[in-house]
Amino acid sequence: MSPRELDGANAGGQFVRTALALSVLTDEPIRLENVRGDRPTPGLRHQHLAVLETMAEICDADVSGAELGAETVAFDPGIEGDGGLEGGEYAVDIGTAGSATLLCNAVLPLVTVLESPLSVTITGGTDVAWSPPLDYLRRVKLPLLRRVGLAAACEAERRGFYPEGGGEVTLRLEPSALEPIGLGERGSLEALRLYSTESASLADRDVAHRQAKGALERLDSDAPELADRNETTADSPSPGSALVLRIDHGTGIAGFSALGERGKPAERVGEDAADAANRFLEGTAPVDRHMADQLLVFLALAGGRVRIPAVTDHVDTRCDLLEAFGAEIDLEDDGATTLVSVSSLLDGIQ
């Protein structure tokens, strides 16, 4: 089979991760040109290479271009027979503070073709810039996807902040059949949950508590009642902190996060997450802007629809990629939100 030609000239790492997952799911070889072409330093970085090598190992793929800086990658999944994928236990060390959660996101869709349990233990950054913090993955995304049948859990042995990384998480997946996703409307607000984490080196400054205090004082009065306040001191090779707010409503879950930075008051970290939550509360979409693009692959697998707060560049890029693999996508913009409906790819994968 000739590989599907894909051009990443106007995309970043998300394009690479999603393309690899779709290649495995459809058992279709791909050739990626201009990898991360719109980034200041194009080509594969450590975390993208780790995703490529992990996906290749899981499905015994034939790969070329698996090296740092590569701007052309060929990937031919090694799935045989009826398209099922054997599970197993794998370990990957990103080698930097590259994002462990982004690697988890790349592997998650494979649940739909697994024939046996799969676990991947990842060493790298768990709470780093330009990626979902660990508690967003564990407390927001996975609980939302479990509602439609995804069987997955993520365990953390150690947190990894920038610049050392060194965190360790294990993603465990069970074979799963997803139900259609129905997130066309937001339900009534039900509960607020807060997860604030500090490295042990920051405990004497009460960073986790101050982050939480800043968030709660900044939230609008129409936020739902606080149901869980979790402040954690975690082992980590680097000093760092993170805060995640979760809002549960009648039809789904939304999440909002912020990371600590050198010179940034802990209270401000909480305020930043609260500001994002307040913007969500002012709107009507059932998911936050980051979940909007992360759900698209699962929509293509199970079918369904989701109302999103905005069509971001990430949403645009992922829609284009899904359509390249045969998904049918419809966007209905009402001026305040966009209803995204996805169908057709599931039959091809099953």
UniProtKB/TrEMBL annotation:
Biased composition (Basic and acidic residues): 215-232
Superkingdom per UniProt: Archaea
Residues holding ATP: 290-294
Region (Disordered): 215-242
Catalytic activity of the protein: a 3'-end 3'-phospho-ribonucleotide-RNA + ATP = a 3'-end 2',3'-cyclophospho-ribonucleotide-RNA + AMP + diphosphate
SUPFAM superfamilies attached to this UniProt entry: EPT/RTPC-like, RNA 3'-terminal phosphate cyclase, RPTC, insert domain
Entries under Pfam families matching the protein: RTC, RTC_insert
RNA 3'-terminal phosphate cyclase domain residues: 11-325
EC number: 6.5.1.4
Subcellular location: Cytoplasm
Keywords per UniProt: ATP-binding, Cytoplasm, Ligase, Nucleotide-binding
Active-site residues per Swiss-Prot or TrEMBL entry: 314 (tele-amp-histidine intermediate)
GO molecular function: ATP binding; RNA-3'-phosphate cyclase activity
RNA 3'-terminal phosphate cyclase insert domain mapped to chain residues: 185-281
GO CC annotations on file: cytoplasm
GO BP term, example: RNA processing
Function of the molecule: Catalyzes the conversion of 3'-phosphate to a 2',3'-cyclic phosphodiester at the end of RNA. The mechanism of action of the enzyme occurs in 3 steps: (A) adenylation of the enzyme by ATP; (B) transfer of adenylate to an RNA-N3'P to produce RNA-N3'PP5'A; (C) and attack of the adjacent 2'-hydroxyl on the 3'-phosphorus in the diester linkage to produce the cyclic end product. The biological role of this enzyme is unknown but it is likely to function in some aspects of cellular RNA processing.
NCBIfam families linked to this entry: PRK04204.1-2, RNA_3prim_cycl
Family label: Belongs to the RNA 3'-terminal cyclase family. Type 1 subfamily.
Protein name: RNA 3'-terminal phosphate cyclase
Organism: Natrinema saccharevitans
